Amino acid sequence: MVRNILLVAALVTTPALATAPDDPSRIKVTGHGKVSTDPDVASLSFTIRGEGTSSDDAARALSRKRAAIADGLAGLLGPKAVLRTGDLSMAEVRDRACFGTDGDDERPKLSSGACAVRGYIAAMEGSLRISPVKDAGTALSLASRLGAVNARLGGFSIGNASTAQQRAEAAAMADARARAAAIAAASGARLGRLLSVEDPEARSGGQDIVVTGMRSPAVFAPAPVAIDITPEPVDTTATLIVTYAIAP
């Protein structure tokens, strides 16, 4: 009787053993790959301002400055250097006395007395993609001379990112196979065929260079001041989850 009970218990627990998550016929590893590539594209961004006693004057000043910056950068970088524009705003300028002693009174105000509008500032965001990156520092210098405000050089990237990603994934596969082979050898088994590959994530990075301040526009006569830059390589990473069979 006791023997029959033990046999039934063994039969009941057998299916649970068959569905255990650790399959002894497979090896599942995570491989990591990383390659470093010198960037060949840089992003230049800045603000263009136009000031005037009327909104029309400010708009005209902004338009002239935008044209000067666009022409100057095209002359330096070639016709493929296209200035792209973003947000555009027109702000009223009032005397400091309108905002109280602490200068942070943001309540609505009538445009009279100390709060009369003294002028206008038109502002536009500009950006440009530069390749090769060796000209990017000089382009920032020139744009600032021509009136760009808070010029910023950043977003270094790779024009052909897919090639770098393929190299990183190949390195991740090689790393995964080496890990799996080491595990198989340590357990006295032979590594079999590849069963599956999962790609959970891939990333790339960059760096920034910042120049703050405002430069007054000048006549474009002397050559632009050259700024040599050597940006850090862009790291491209890949992580692959790879499963191999254990050879019989």
3D structure, described in words:
This protein has about 250 residues and is an alpha+beta fold. The protein has two domains: about 25-40 and about 160-215 and about 225-248, 2-Layer Sandwich (Translation Initiation Factor IF3), CATH 3.30.110; about 40-155, 2-Layer Sandwich (Alpha-Beta Plaits). About 30% of the residues lie in helices and about 35% in strands. It has helices spanning about 1-20, 55-75, 135-145, 160-185; strands spanning about 25-35, 40-50, 85-95, 115-130, 150-155, 190-205, 210, 235-245. The strands form two sheets. It has a five-stranded antiparallel β-sheet with strand order 3-4-2-5-7. Strands 1-8-6 form a three-stranded antiparallel β-sheet. The chain is elongated and about 90 Å long. It starts with a helix and ends with a strand. About 25% of the residues are buried. The model is unreliable at about 1-20 and about 200-220 (pLDDT under 50).
